[in-house]
Amino acid sequence: MATKQVTLKKLIPPIRQWEGPKTQRLVRTPGDFGLGQVPVEMKPDATTNVICGFCSTGCGLNIHMKDGQAVSLTPTTDYPVNMGMACPKGWEALTPLQANDRATTPMIREQRGGKLVATDWHNALTEFTTRFKRVQKEHGKESVAFISTGQIVTEEMAYLGALAKFGMGIKHGDGNTRQCMATAVVAYKQSFGFDAPPYTYQDFEESDVIVLVGSNLCIAHPIMWQRVERNQNNPEIIVIDPRKTETAVAATQHYPITPKSDLVFFYGLAKILLEKNYVDEAFLEAHCEGYQEFYEHIQKFTLDEVEQCSGITPEQMEYLAETIGNGQRVSFWWTMGINQGHEAVRTAQAIINIALMTGNIGRPGTGANSITGQCNAMGSRLFSNTTGLLGGHDFANAQDREKVADILDIDVSLIPDAPSMAYDQIVNGIHDGKIKGLWVIATNGAHSWIHQDRYKEAMEKLDYLVVQDMYTTTETVEYADLLLPAAGWAEKDGTFINSERRVGLVKKVAKAPGDALSDFNIFRLITDYWGCRDAFASWTSPEKVFQLLTKLSEGQPCDISGIKNYQQIDAQGGIQWPCLPQDVAGLNKDNQRRLFGDGRFYHTNQRAKFIFADPQQVAEPTDKDFSMILLTGRGSSAQWHTQTRTKKSAVLRKLYPQSIYVEIHPDDADDLGIKPNDLVLVKSRRAGVTATALVTPTVQRGQLFMPMHYAKANQLTMGSFDPYSRQPSYKFCAVAVMSAVNTSPS
Length: 746
Ligand SMILES: Nc1nc2c(c(=O)[nH]1)N[C@H]1C(S)=C(S)[C@@H](COP(=O)(O)OP(=O)(O)OC[C@H]3O[C@@H](n4cnc5c(=O)[nH]c(N)nc54)[C@H](O)[C@@H]3O)O[C@H]1N2
Ligand SMILES: Nc1nc2c(c(=O)[nH]1)N[C@H]1C(S)=C(S)[C@@H](COP(=O)(O)OP(=O)(O)OC[C@H]3O[C@@H](n4cnc5c(=O)[nH]c(N)nc54)[C@H](O)[C@@H]3O)O[C@H]1N2
Ligand code: SF4
Ligand SMILES: [Mo]
What we know:
Helix content: 25-40%
CATH class of the largest domain: Alpha Beta
Mean pLDDT: 94
Number of strands: 26
CATH architecture of the largest domain: 3-Layer(aba) Sandwich
Bound molecules: ligand MGD, iron/sulfur cluster, molybdenum atom
Distance between the termini: 44 Å
Strand content: 15-25%
CATH topology of the largest domain: Rossmann fold
Shape: globular
Strand order of the largest sheet: 5-4-16-15-14-6-7
Low-confidence stretches: 1-27, 33-38
Number of domains: 3
Structural class: alpha/beta
Radius of gyration: 25 Å
């Protein structure tokens, strides 16, 4: 093993006090994991299909190898997701692997404020173990937590969640999927009885009416948008979004609603659908419950009230209702404009209710469809062992705990009997002194978490912070006491689950640089150093873990026990869940599956529930000092989140502005004396950020839009959360804007 030995200053407590394995060859070493080797079974000049590691669309990419190294890629033509298409990020996916800020060796910060210095894996993992164990000893086991991700393979996130909770005695762990999908998870569980997005992408092509709510598909899911474009039914495409986004421009109807008026809007819509007799009584009768109560609830949402609240006129609402009511196959899709709100779960359910009452579910071209975000958000929802127990199980359910303990061959007492604290509660826990140690894996919270300064203060308060990432320069790494260098996408094996529930394969086609290891192998090493190898005896390779996960899924709605190995997934072009053994024979005929074709939902009475509530005010309404609404979200198809990967590509960098900008309506700009490209100061109650003004009517008067890809955007946002999903409300806070022509950019 190549090691850069550094003289470690007195690390407290000294390494010899560590209570881990005591044998001579203590543990497996990175060399045991084939560090830097390409898989033996891959021919050195082969072309092989892997799933893209950016968004949840899950496109297939053909990787072309030369001398055992990935040299280029092209979108896979016969993959049922993308059919030969890819967006700019996909085309450039190999480039970020070559960046010169890749973490190539573990790094330790000997003192706060000092530099990270290179060390070897043995020192790093001894430190990891000693420090976290010490925190647990001094402050209780629950004082160490982890924050994970929707961007590593399912096998890795399952290993992480299991290792942390069953091996290290960590009770609290959450992921960046909290920022993203938590609302859809809770909405589906309550309405359908399980977290089950019902659609297949073919539905984009089979609808005659497509309703996109708070979703900028052209930018955020460009290849899903391509699927819409392939629709031969000349569909009505309806966009409900405060901004005239790229998607809204391409739509046939755009309803520019006032931000966060969705709940009133959809209740009002439900009322006119009812009045116009567009209700599918037979479906309600056979497959739903709670409709009568819902019927009474929506009576108070008159069209006048809808107009007052959302800005959409009664005539527009009638037209929308008629389009939906007359549609034969209407599909409803939502993303972050809904999930990231103060009453997000009830809003998502308001969309679900409309699909149910019009009978638009379970048939081709229909559905109440939450689009996921990250490449493996769906994997993390089912298998990360954070909010839910492995395999879509429930920590609080004794039978579920028994089942999981039995399959994993561990003592059931190792499984916590309650779900973990949510991300925001972990951050609060740090502020309150309850959480003292944090392990962050494949997420960059110091850029992406809401109310950033408060997050950064929390990082400073920790006794010990470990960050596991591909790069040395992320905003979160700046706070790390220890950096564990991770291999990235295409440098390791495993599976992702995409938005339409398709399990797809990721393969090692490139060597990770230096001593970087796959997250999977890092977890294996930690298993040894922590001293809990017995509980993980069968967790020896990603494929073995995958097989464990298929067993864990048995009997669940997400049952994938029909999938026996990776080769089957590869041969099939991905496999959607559920996939029971008896489904396998039919797979070749139709590689598309949607849920609820039989009208049976996952509640014990098999009925879908109507769930609703009275609308609530946003946490921070505008006032005279902060009179404008700040919206945030995706800026371009070439930028990915906190940009640790996409900014490494010269090609992608040409496709978006390099410095932070804010969209402002021309009339507001006029009133404020702001000209295009002027510097402006955007102020919220939390911070002031200088940005370039992009004067454009894509935003409405009184509203601003700032892309999340620039680190400062989240200095402005306010920590408000949906009460059920605890997902942050990134898409609303009150700000003021003023010219800052004479100030230099911040
Ligand atoms: N290029 C690119 N693609 C990505 C990502 C990326 O970073 N870059 N990230 C991926 C991830 S993880 C995710 S979660 C998805 C996100 O995908 P999207 O949700 O489509 O993207 P956003 O831009 O965050 O938000 C969508 C829209 O919500 C609107 N909106 C704001 N407030 C409201 C409101 O109150 N009501 C309604 N109806 N709409 C509102 C915004 O104007 C915005 O146009 O994208 C994925 N794809
Ligand atoms: N204002 C505002 N903020 C937002 C949003 C918004 O709309 N507005 N959207 C939110 C949403 S939906 C999301 S999903 C989050 C995303 O927020 P983050 O998860 O913080 O964003 P990423 O940049 O994707 O961070 C992923 C990190 O993992 C690292 N990484 C990549 N691959 C690997 C790997 O294989 N192993 C390891 N160990 N590390 C790896 C990357 O280098 C990067 O540092 O942002 C949220 N923040
Ligand atoms: S649409 Fe998403 S999955 Fe497809 S190539 Fe682009 S980033 Fe990758
Ligand atoms: Mo997301």
